[in-house]
Amino acid sequence: xxxxxxxxxxxVSLVAVTTGPTNLLAAVNCRDAxxxxxxxxxxIASLDAIRTMETAPVIRTVKRAGAPLPL
Length: 71
Prior knowledge:
single chain; two-stranded antiparallel ribbon; Alpha-Beta Plaits; 71 residues; globular; 2 helices; alpha+beta
């Protein structure tokens, strides 16, 4: 399965199967733009099941999920 293959890559911190026009979401953590480019073109794009890819680099994180607040 593609999700399992992507999860093996050290740069990938999240892989989720989704519905709608895309069927897979992955979060890829890279050192810089060059590392991102190499990860996308040499590692992820080389997987047989990849037909198209769309990227959306995170410019700034405003809030992250944390531990649930106590009731």
